[in-house]
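Fold these two proteins, one after the other.
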Amino acid sequence: MKLFGDSLDFVSIASSDDAQALTESLLYSGPSPAGITARGTPLSRDLALSLLRRRLGRIQGSIQEEFERGELPGLFAGRRLGALMDGLIAAIHRYSLAVAGSEAEEEPFALAATGGYGRGVLAPFSDIDLLFVSRAPLNPGGQRAVEFMLYLLWDLGLKVGHATRSVAECIEEAHKDATVQTALLEARFLSGDAAIFEEFETAFGAARREWGIGQFFHAKRAERQARHKRYGDSPYLVEPHIKEGRGGLRDLQAMYWFASYAFGTQKMWQLVGSDSPGGGLLTADEARAFRRAWSFLWTVRFHLHYTTGRAEERLTFDLQPVVGARMGYTRHGKQEGVERFMKHFFLTARDVVRLSRLLEPAIERATLGPPALQPTPGAEDTAAGITLADGRALIAPGFDVAADSAVMLRLVRIARDRGWELHPLAHRQLIRNARFAVPLREDPAAGELFLELLTGHASAHWMRVLNEVGFLSRFIPDWARIVGLMQFDTYHVYTVEEHTIEAIGVLNTLDGGGLEDVAPVASELIGQVQSRRALYVATLLHDIAKGRGGDHSELGAAIATEVCPRLGLSPEETETVSWLVLNHLLISQVAFKRDIDDPKTILDLAEVVQSPERLRLLLLLTVADMRAVGPKVWNGWKATLLRELYWRVAEVLAGGLSVPERDVRVARAKQAVEALLSDWPREAVESFLRAGYPGYWLSFDAATHARHAALMREAEATAAPLTVRTRVLDSRAVTEVTVFAADHPGLFSQIAGALALGGASIVDARIHTMTNGMALDTFWVQDATGGMLEAPHRLSRLGVLIEGALTGRIRLAEEIRKVRREPSRLRAVTVPPRVLLDNHASTSHSVIEVNARDRPGLLHDVTAAISEQGLQIASAHITTYGVRAVDVFYVKDVFGLKVENERKLASLRNAILGALSPRVEAEDAAPVVRAVF
């Protein structure tokens, strides 16, 4: 039996006696006279099906029991399951021939396993791929036998892929379709006429030699590229597809296909040693790495299938902790078991990528001949140890990398500067020699080379190359600790090191002017920064301390002070990098969690930043960090907040604004709106100017004040109890909802609930009670995807829902419960609820920050609890990070003062936690409460 993969010699535990006994049971239905050994009449189909179901159940049950007891790793379980299925399917084949009668035997055929089943390794819910191969097209009897067998397999609940072809048809189809060629490459005889299968193997082998391996390489690479595009071109996606994704089983199988096609080998160990095909394409360590990756991924796959009860190949958030626990990963120190499991997974995926880059070009060269070397255009390239082959760069054959390991960095720099691709053999060279990066850590010339690569054009591409070949982990030891590290949340799309490289890519795009439409300020500033090297190094190191416990910003700042001098940065640059790493979350936290219309917010941030250059650097790092998290994190609203915050702080740092007294600013705001309302009757203008308290005049620009004036005048003229206006703001990617109604406790909560029912997610809000007792509340909302609500029917529905909520016609609590829940795959991600109370962030308000798991109606419940405590909400700032909601409220008590009484604060904490707890998952950690005074 032909088996693929690397392991100790595998002995099939499927008893041939059991298989023979099953066959005899199917073919003999009654007693024979004494001395007669000929078979009797085959069992009836119903009886045979019952017998086969029991046998299949025993096979599947025994494999699952032994696997889950830990007696069989996934690869061995897959091989054992494949061997046991061989016996079952061979018995079914013989039974089908017997039922079809003598006509089926007149035109013999062979039954073969193909595809994954052909490798002799079968997952619990995988397809059974079968080939019925004959010398000539099957006669009616043979066709009946095949049809009978297939229906029997389907009735057993097996998923069967099948083809019925003559030998000539097999060759013809394989020539036209590389997928068929691959399936036939793994064909394995099961039952029937063995001579026919040998004829097929001989013909197919001759055809492959005639076609050559070049066409096979070309087809499989195109197939792989399309597959990666569909399932993810990065091996570090946090919900990986273990079979089709990059670094998954299919990539590993491709290496077996190439080796089998080229040399007829079935195990990677056959490529080790100077006398092996190709002259020793792998070392023993590399062959062991293949075996480890193959075994680990098969074990994960078995757990996935058994956990879900289906052929599930995607490791989603809800399955990761389950599979990790089943595989024995527990919490160690600060790292959860699921994070340890996923790190092992990503390191394995990285190894698969490296092994592919290592072996594939070696097989190609061994079969197609060595590459045609070409002299490089510049003599300095040759002197640097670099040459060309097929128009692509590699280290010159025979160059002693151990003696001059900086050649690895020179290779990348020259390829970048000349616009050359790296030759596949260059990746093999870099992987094999990555260990020689260690001596370069203290080499000033190497540090300068690395900085040139990091700060040059397309640096993300070259950093990704250096990461994939293992150079970065050896050149910067702290980098190795974040490789494969994931955060178990739904906010981050990539592992930490891949996110970092993506952030460098954002800087590259800003440099090239590719983000002028979505990040105009950052696109302008990138050309103004004087500390370019510090910016890129800070981006490289901003998450370097994640996974260590504690504040990764503080720990990362300390690491930066050690790494930067080794790279050749000056003391001034080192201090700047360390400061940027320490504060890389500052701007986003202020922009999304604080009221940027509050002068204290701007002054506090300016005091920390202190210089315009640092502000520019910090904004650029923030933009790069946010856009690198994932495609859905950045939107127009967040860009607007960052832009406005930047300009306000920049104005303070430039000395152009000292934040004038409150009364002066209010007076200026009134003068501006008066100018816009110059054609109104004076009495109407005076009425509007008396309507707003100081906080209202400081919250909006003159144009918005003028719109509010028109809205209020119309409402008063018509005696309307409720007015709702919506406005789509394309520049900010939000929809503005303005509500003018009689003020009462809980108004914010009711409106928030109505907006939730309308599919609107609040990102910011301003709440104002006017001097006449009316409330003028403004909400900025987006849809569930972070886009604007702009369809007329959706905007109209918002108004209807708000009116229904305020009149009591809609029972909000009941309706919110009916809103569809989140996908089940996200429920495994826990978010411990947390409440922070801060009386220092604002001079006039207490600030409440609520961290909790996001859900429909969360804002309604929290604001209702705040209102029930007798507090007035002046503004709300809403941010979501995956399934985590961070809601910040600026509040006052009924007297317009901060909440500072300890008993009142304790009551407020308990009320908010009570609003969170009814929907909190049972497995969530206990709430965390912290106050800042």
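Now the second one:
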Amino acid sequence: MPSLPSQDPAAVRLAVVIPAWNQPGLLPEALASVLGQEGAPPIAAVVVDDGCPSPSTAAIALHYAAAHPGRVFLLRQRNRGLSAARNAGIDFVLQAFPDCRGIFFLDADNRLLPGHMARGWAALQAAPPGTGWFYPDINEFGGHANGSCAGDFSLLHLLVLNYCEAGSLVRREVFETGLRFDSATMRAGFEDWDFWLQAARAGFTGQHVPDWGFLYRRRPESMLAAAERQRDHLLRLLRERHAPLLRPAALLELEAREAPRFALFEVDRPGLRLFLDPARPEEAEVPAFRRRLLQAEQAPGAVHAPALCVFAEAAPLDLLRRQGLLAMVLWWAERLLRDHELVALEIAAAAAPQLSFEVREAPEDGIAGAALLLLGSERLLRFAADPLSPEVASLDAEAPLPRLARLRLALPGPVPPPGGGGALRLLQAEIAGLGRLRQAMAGLPRPWRVDWRSSRRMMAADARAAIGLGATLPRLPAPGKRDIGFLLPVFAFAGLEKVVLRQAELLRARGWRTHLVVAGALGMDWGPEIGRSFDSVTLFAGLGEDWVRHEIGYFGSALSRMQDHPGAADALGALAGCDVVINAHAVGCHALAAPLRRLGVRCLAALHLVERASWDAPHGNPHALAGYEHAYDGVLVISDELRRWCIGHGLPRDKLLLVRNAPGHAAEPARIAAALAAREARDGPLRVLFLGRLDAQKGIDRLAALIAATRSPGIAWRVVGRPVMQDGAAPLLELPIEPPVQAPEALDALYAWADLLVLPSRFEGVPLVILEAQRMGCAVVTTDVGAVREIVADGEDGVLVPGGLPEEAIIARFIETIGRLAADRAALRAMGARAAARAGALTWEDCMRDLLARFDALVPPPAEAAPRPVPAPVAAPVISGAGA
């Protein structure tokens, strides 16, 4: 190449940095391709000799520098690796060429076609300032593959695949922020991938430049081949360095912005809506969606289309939103569509105040009456490929469909009537419309480059899988809100559940979004309290069975098997969107705490009591937790007695937080006063109440003996409850059993009716039923077990029967106490009044004050939260050579 006139450094607008190590025979081709650029502004080439063992490298670069003064420069340094060589070139360019607007990185074995830098300059000039770098397609020489990198830039895609070639043009402003290539951690490879992620975290985006003229030499043995041999190791390093980008909340935000997961078609509503979170949809036009779907089929690495399509009728969809169940239904459908072609949802009215959720495979009634139909977009495309096929025609039949999953959700209260086929007709119309557009697009030319990248439809799932997550609940973080999940094994409106309801209600009033996750059942008690306390409800028991193993647990306690369970990734996905998760006795899920904490979720365990086995040995949830304590940020206990137990069993004191119980529902002062006044005025039989589960823990056999011994004209009994543990003890009672009540007014009416609450339990925590009865002025006689002593002062506002006596003595003491109080109503009323004063002073606000402070320390309120960290720039290298 003939010599060119000398070039003033002040005129340089673009620079090409060429790291050189042991490729002296190819370096002249790279330099010649830079010097041969046409139509570009002034360019300088900077060769960085990275301690090359061949003297020819420096000699060739010096020859070019002498022949083209001001256009070619040589830097020399001891061997420090590719990243350090690029950084040396960057620092030189920034200092030597004050008006240089961009730096292109060209490896010594690659080339540029003559118009390359002119097209790069035009792209840089036209792009907005936030566009930090410009990347090419891969045009190979030496090999035969030509790879396409077309499509809009996607950070989500970049998290799972580096499709930005190191041979890219980077805007000067990127380097002026201090960003450099990592010359330490990523020295073995993937340093360019790491740099693009650094730039993205600093707020820059990339831009593809089509037909740019970059030529990539591919040889079977190269630095890239060496890096691929260490791929797993390098990926781990990369993910550790960029963990903030891989936090579940960050991934959800990216997915919502770049790759909405769902396309929703609604009956009687024009257009469609695209969303990740159904609460934040974007309107779209059907023709544009169809075209995009077909383009994504043709170029899956370049064009994104939603992975899942939903066809729905309006009324059931609105019901699911109002009840906080839509995210759960979508999450279940996403999981089921891995192995099924179609998911149909039916909503039915429940006979009892309970929610039930059922999953059936290939049901006999096909999709008849379905309110929602869900299928993958790939499946929709296959239907559209042949809209007249028997497979599509069979959708009309009320018969089993192969690979169909039918969900049945039963809810109390009014529900929409069974679907009238509108969702199916909408699906069929979309199949026909897609089919027509496919035919119209059949003759269009196809790209000649191979789209080698993974599908954008799957990039969010791939990114989640990289951090151990399966399907995540489609729920985005809400501005100014924090999310907390309460994880329970079952939900049956017992004491533990009522504590969780009150805690969630208070947190919701303090600006948190609250979520109930039930791990052990596909059903739960349901009532208005759910909507007041929780923003969403998720049931995931169908992920698998046998999550708890008892035979080899820590000191004989239960052992969580979730870490080895195939459903664990999906279970994590149901919880990973929370800032805080409280595990309240879900023993099978203890193994989820450690991976959740690695994802940035704060995890706490809640303990309510030490259970006892059938042979009266201490056993249960606290014992199981002791084996997993290190995985939790804290442990909530409801009593001093339980706190002492935990300390005695090795749980750290500073992890234990005392959160006492208050009554399980609010009561109007007038209602309390009326109950106290009515009790003062009445006479007649002593009214004795038992309210609780009819099982061995509550001493149901003892209760039967008490009733048999005391039931008389002078003592009237009422028993309210139901068997929960199914231990067969309930039939011991010889009087009618009233069903449990949930409404606060009905509960307070029971307490107001009673003069005395009797609770002959074998073990307890801090029973809410005692606090609720006390508040209404009802005295309590109970066994002195658990932490009952902390809420009942013996002889002052109740009577405690020692729990360590022989069975006969315990029953005799209860009988004697009931008889004594029946005979001395004045003492009983005074006891009740003192109980009302004690329990009436308890509030959840006071009980949770320390817990709220702990939450604020673990997850600062949004206004006080620190901004997401940006990685510190890698220190610039010392340049050990001179430019010529």
